[in-house]
Design goal:
Elements (H helix, E strand, L loop, with lengths): L4 H9 L6 E9 L5 H21 L4 E3 L3 E4 L4 H17 L4 E6 L2 H5 L1 H4 L2 E4 L10 H25 L1
Parallel strand pairs: 1-2, 1-3, 1-4, 4-5
Helix pairs in contact: 2-6
Length: 153
């Protein structure tokens, strides 16, 4: 399910079956990293949407958690922990952070939840069929992590 009014109605009716949330982590930069941050956003959005499409009904794809690349990491962690608390209080047992930002890899232990880190693959020059193929391949890898966590609980 996505963060849309139609899917929210479905979520409210079948809340007990939805136990997983994905929070895309999207950096924003207007400086020298503007193209990199935009590529990360494109890529993570495609991966998140395909994951949600394939796991619709059990997984909730939240709106992106956006932040400035230069933003203080302690502040970001506090905000993320607040999001996680809200989701857990709502009954979502599994929370994943999806990103291509390598800075989160360095802080993975502090997140407290599973980080799904995918190195960014620039999609802007690929044709649509090849893009789709790449995204589906990447999502297969994410499934392994998500399914393993589901089996553990």
């Amino acid at each position: 399910m996505k963060w849309s009014s139609g899917d929210i109605t479905v979520y409210q009716q079948s809340k007990e079956f939805v136990d997983t949330a994905i929070i895309p982590l999207l950096p924003v930069s207007f400086g020298s990293h503007i193209r990199t941050s935009a590529s990360m956003g494109d890529y993570v959005t495609l991966i998140g949407e395909e994951t949600e499409r394939q796991l619709h009904g059990r997984l909730f794809l939240l709106p992106p958690f956006t932040y400035l690349m230069e933003e203080d990491s302690e502040t970001l962690l506090l905000r993320l922990h607040s999001w996680v608390k809200e989701l857990k209080d709502e009954g979502l047992r599994h929370v994943y952070f999806l990103t291509s930002d390598p800075e989160w890899k360095k802080r993975e232990q502090e997140l407290g939840e599973t980080l799904l880190w995918m190195p960014v693959i620039p999609m802007e020059t690929m044709d649509a069929d090849y893009q789709e193929e790449i995204v589906k391949e990447q999502v297969k890898q994410l499934f392994q992590v998500i399914l393993h966590k589901w089996q553990e609980s």
